[in-house]
Amino acid sequence: MDMRKLVGSNFARLRREKGLTQEQVEARSGISQQYLSGLEHGRRNPSIITLYELAQALDVSHVDLVMPTDDAEIDMKSD
Question: How confident is the model at residue 71 (pLDDT cuts 50, 70, 90)?
Answer without folding.
Answer: low
